[in-house]
């Protein structure tokens, strides 16, 4: 079942993608479907999210609610309607 989802991207990505608002709305059945929509709508973001089709880059984490999708079913994680997917790049430092 297709759900309405909000994808929250880092504000720094807005400038790169010419995006006004870091909260983007789409319809998708899975996290992967939402990410496919994101990189199709904003191709400049693709290398920041996907290493190859169907595989996240290692430095980005995706959360549905409080859950890291890597601990769920990855990009195959089903998203309920009105879900929020947060894109969180890993931070380096010490």
UniProtKB/TrEMBL annotation:
Higher taxonomy: Bacteria, Bacillati, Actinomycetota, Actinomycetes, Streptosporangiales
InterPro entries, per the entry: Beta-grasp_dom_sf (IPR012675), Mopterin_synth/thiamin_S_b (IPR016155), Sulfur_Carrier/Prot_Modifier (IPR052045), ThiS/MoaD-like (IPR003749)
Superkingdom of this protein's organism: Bacteria
Protein name, per record: Molybdopterin converting factor small subunit
């Amino acid at each position: 079942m297709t759900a309405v989802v909000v994808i929250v991207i880092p504000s720094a990505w807005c400038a790169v993608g010419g995006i006004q608002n870091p909260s983007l709305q789409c319809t998708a059945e899975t996290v992967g479907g939402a990410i496919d929509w994101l990189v199709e709508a904003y191709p400049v973001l693709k290398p920041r999210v996907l290493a190859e089709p169907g595989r996240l880059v290692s430095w980005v984490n995706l959360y549905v609610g409080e859950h890291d999708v890597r601990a769920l079913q990855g990009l195959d994680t089903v998203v309920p309607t009105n879900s929020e997917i947060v894109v969180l790049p890993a931070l380096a430092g010490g």
